[in-house]
Amino acid sequence: MRLALHPLDVKLLRDLWHMRGQVLAIAAVIMGGVATLVMSLSTYDSLTTTRDRFYRDYRFADLFVTLKRAPEPVAERLRAIPGIERLETRVRAGVKLEVAGFADPITGLLLSVPDSGDALLNGLHLKRGRMVQPYSSDEVVLSDTLADAHRLEPGARIVAIINGKRKALEVVGVAVSPEYVYQIAPGSMFPDFKRYGVLWMGRSALAAAYDMEGAFNNATATLTRGAPVQAVLDRVDGVLAAYGGTGAYPRQDQFSNRFLSEELKQLQTTATIFPAIFLGVAAFLLDVVISRLIALQREQIAILKAFGYSNRAVGWHFVKLVLVVVLLGVAAGTALGAWFGRWLADVYQETTFRFPYLDYLLNAGTVLVALLVSAAAAITGTLFSVFRAARLAPAEGMRPETPAIYRATVLERIGLQRWFTAPTRMIMRHIERRPVKSLLTVLGISCACGLMMVGNYQKGAIDFMVDVQFRQAAREDLALTFIEPTSGKALHELAAVPGVTHVEGFRDVPAILRFQNYSYRSAVFGIQPEGRLHRSLDRRLQPVRLPAGGVVLTDHLANKMLHVKPGDLLTIEVLEGRRQVAQVPVLGITQQYLGVSAYMRQESLNELLHEGNVLSGAYLAIEPGAEPAVYAELHERPRVLGMVANAAAIRSFYATIGEFVLFYNMVASLLAGAIGFGVVYNSARIALSEGGRELASLRVLGFTRGEIAYILLGELAALALAAIPVGMLVGVGLVAILVQAFESELYRLPLILNADNYAGGAAVIVVSALLSGWLVWHKLGKLDLVAVLKTRE
Amino acid sequence: MGIAEQHELVFRARGLTKIYRMGEVEVPALRGIDLELRAGELVVLLGPSGSGKSTLLNILGGLDTPTSGEVFYLDHNLTAAGERDLTAFRRDHVGFVFQFYNLIPSLTARENVAVVTEISPAPMRPEEALALVNLGERLDHFPAQLSGGEQQRVAIARAIAKNPSVLLCDEPTGALDSQTGVVVLEALEKVNRELGTLTVLITHNVGIADMADRVVRLSDGQVVECRANPAKRSAHELSW
Q: What angle do CA A217, A222, A226 make, to 5 degrees?
């Protein structure tokens, strides 16, 4: 059998080859859409699959609760609650750590593991080393984040300050836990692998150190299938109320899991918004190119039909052409998306989420979705043109298309015509004759600007958030917490530490906030009404003086979660001590981007708790350069439990996100460039094809190449220039959508775009336009002047 | 000595050859043409398709260069001119009229003329040029609103509005019926008479030759006949 292509298919391939520049430009736009789609979906798949497997294999719990202290037999009462499947008690304690050669404060979380046998729940995946030996008193397993950050291998020694006493601990293993896929120190805003870590220690050793023998202060449980979660939580709280329970919470509120879920939700958003933009633009471009091709091939189509080809065969011929472009785009996009996805998954694993393994997964389903969505967009875009080609009557096709009808533009009709030369009028009339096409071109180009702005947005937004959080609101150099609530007199001691320039106390207490049927489990912060260090900010980011007697809430907490407004009475159920329940008026709304908080005056909170001047911790300002001495001094004080140093946190945060920012900038520039170039170049080529004869005639009449380039590229330049402000609006709109979509109690992105963002967006358009212009300029040099004398279009 | 020879020599071509290379085949289009064209003449280049008349016109108009031989416009050697000089030559001295008019569809009649006068050193006003071809009252019509003959007359107005030294017309009536064609030829005749512009007109239509001062017949890339036409007839007497 001879392998032979159908002549129509040969024509198809030649047509494609003939317009290869345009084909590649459109394929590049499709590639952009497919790449974002594949990247987001495959990373989403990889993370969810890995997460689900990790949670299942390592028995991640469904319910978590922390309490002050309960004798072990109380656990039996918890186990008896219907719906509880398996429950495990633990001892848990905050701890200060020392790593040789590192002066900054390190905070740790000590968690007990059973003395013998595996943990029932929240099992550890050992990456290196071994588990602690039964009943050993000084062995710990370290979370891999802290271990990696300090290069601590099994056999290394670290020092923990346990109840004011230094204890040398031997690292015997390095592990990851489903409970701490995302690790962040309490009171801290960002993960800091160098300054926070989780340590697992034998139960009896830990209990002995914290006076918890025969008792527990933390429990986790799995629930039976279909158990009424809220009812179980309520009953657990009922049992533990007498033991200082701070409220049980379900897996979905577990911090690490919650953060991971938010991130996954964002990936899904990315997988929808961006491919939609790219494929919309690609559909428009294909329509423009295919309708031009069909116009040029009128006669060929007529001849084919005269020979007896059916409407369907002619239509299918052009659909196939579209599909070849789609296939090219999908193939390239899948490859690029897989590369991006693998990279993104690695960045996640390295900087944010710790899994025992992360298998990058590219499902056939993802590729199929990409293919179907792209093909559907492309065919929908070109449907009308293809339909018209298929319906073209043969005799009509043999005649040239009727000449285009022009008229004077609005600007000329209102009497401005004498200001424009004939070439300028040509440009204006071209644009005005096909307003929809011109508008879509402007919109297409503006998408490039918008995408670029989205890509560059993160850096500025993060800078802004950090600035607001650390230079306006939480301006302390160090936040320290006491082991337990302490008399306000402790402030004098802290102020006396050499190097400390200013001290402000704070009181915080875990509480459930309720309004009508809305509630949120959080904490109430009592701070100084006119603090110099820790302040709350109003909508204009100015510090507000906290009013007495009431509570001030973060806008997101008030508006989106509790649905309260100033003047409403909020119910505060304290989860500690005497567990007061009080009605407190909401006196104000504050602006905060990271987390959500409820603030009161410290004295008002003390009053609510029926206590005197009692503090949970203090904010310190430290003389520059004195930090190591202050840390060392405070480290020795038994009442000081944890310390968070802001400057170090910001530095390490920037180090972590640096890679993300770089990644998104690169992806955005690449894709925005693809879309910008795709639209401008195609418009230029179509304009050249449509106006080639006209321009060649003008060349014959003595116009220079520069003068005809003005007519052709002037139109493009006008559209590109118009696209810059439109693109900036598109950028603002896209960022606003992102801000909305990514809004959560964990953080809200500010809608902040600075001059750099706008400039970056405009630059993509300018560069794409210049590059396209340069390519078309070369084409203009090859216009066949002689042919136009002899041929009609 | 004929009347024409009293006038200034505008074009002087010596031994012009032009060979087109089509893949591996060489196609000679001109094989040694000698020709002189003088100011004020109306010359008809006559010949069948493929005789080389368009190639000759393109070389005279600075659109193409010969393979060998020389062409002088006044004392400028066109053969030695580069792309930039040829563009300037066309811009300042040559008026073209095409078979298919080649008007700019987005510009009105007046603007189609203006597009050329705007870049000319000493043009007439577009309205004046259009009046010369009897289109003074259709100034603001777009090409799509004009008949073929009207479009061609706009093209003539566009060609002459710069006051060119030479008007080169390639089958100006090729796309028109004979009645309309005569109107177009009348316009050319009037321009030639009133402005004294050297007019070279390509046609394969023998009937049109009767309006020429001189008829040059080409065949197979060579001049086979070059005769004066003392019995010059006016365009409105022609028919084909």
A: 140
Amino acid in position A284: F
Distance, in Å, from the CA atom of A222 to the CA atom of A79, rounded to the nearest integer, reads 10
Q: B225 φ, ψ to 5°? A: -155, 140
Give the residue numbers spanning the domain of A96: 61-258
Average pLDDT over residues A189-203: 89
Model confidence at A659: pLDDT above 70: yes
Q: Would strands B166-170 and B198-203 be described as parallel, antiparallel, or unpaired?
A: parallel
Higher pLDDT, A614 or A163: A614
Phi, psi (deg, nearest 5) at residue A488 = -60, -15
- Is A113 part of any domain? yes
Task: Assess whether A53 and A67 both reside in one domain.
Answer: no
Q: Is residue A361 part of a domain?
A: yes
CA-nearest of A183, A300, A284 to A682 is A284
Same domain, A285 and A322: yes
- A353, A343: one domain: yes
Judged by a CB distance cut-off of 8 A, whether residue B128 touches chain A is no
pLDDT digits (tens, 9 = 90+) for B44-73: 999 998 899 989 999 999 988 999 999 999
Neighbour-count burial of A517, counting CB atoms closer than 10 A to its CB (0-12 exposed, 13-18 middle, 19+ buried): exposed
Residues of B in Cβ contact (< 8 Å) with A789: 54, 58, 63, 96, 98-99, 102, 170
Distance from CA of A768 to the nearest CA of B (A): 27
Q: pLDDT-based confidence at A168, cuts 50/70/90?
A: very high
Contacts of B97 in chain A (CB under 8 A): none
Taking phi over 0 as left and psi of -120 to 50 as alpha, with beta for the rest, A296 belongs to: alpha
CA distance A406 to chain B (A): 5
| Residue of chain A with shortest Cα separation from B119 | A703
Spell out the domains of chain B, with CATH numbers in brackets: 38-65+91-237 (3.40.50.300)
| Distance of alpha carbon A358 from alpha carbon A372, whole angstroms | 28
Q: Max alpha carbon distance in chain A (Å)?
A: 103
Q: Which residue of B90, B105, B114 is in closest CB contact with A403?
A: B105
* A92 close to A66: Cβ distance less than 8 angstroms: yes
Amino acid, res. A270: T
Contacts of A698 (CB under 8 A, 6+ apart): A707, A708, A711, B104, B115
Q: Which of A199, A223, A258 is the last residue of a domain?
A: A258
Q: What is the pTM of this model?
A: 0.81
| Average pLDDT rounded to a whole number, residues A332-337 | 94
Contact B69, B229 (CB under 8 A): no
Residue A631 is assigned to a structural domain of this protein? no
In terms of domains, do A142 and A3 share one? no
**Rounded distance, CA A604 to CA B59, Å?**
99
Decide if B118 and A421 are in contact by the 8 Å CB cutoff.
yes
φ, ψ of residue B228 in degrees (nearest 5): -75, 155
A123 with A168, same domain: the answer is yes
Residues A712 and A757 in one domain: yes
Is the pLDDT score of A395 beyond 90?
no
What SS3 string covers B108-131? CHHHHHHHHHCCCCCCCCHHHHHH
Q: Are residues A584 and A692 in the same domain?
A: no
Our CA-based measurement puts residue A710 at a distance from the nearest CA of chain B, in whole angstroms, of: 13
* Pairwise CB contact (< 8 Å): A700 & B118: no
Q: Determine, yes or no, domain membership for A185.
A: yes
Q: How many domains does chain A have?
A: 4
Q: Tell me the one-letter amino acid at A561.
A: M
CA pair distance B28, B51, nearest whole angstrom: 10
CB contact under 8 A, B143 and A426: no
Note whether A189 and A299 are same-domain residues: no
- CA–CA min distance A434, chain B (Å): 12
Q: State how far Cα A146 lies from the chain centre.
A: 24
Q: Residue type at B59?
A: I
pLDDT at B175: 83
- Which residue blocks in A636-704 are alpha helix, DSSP H? 646-700
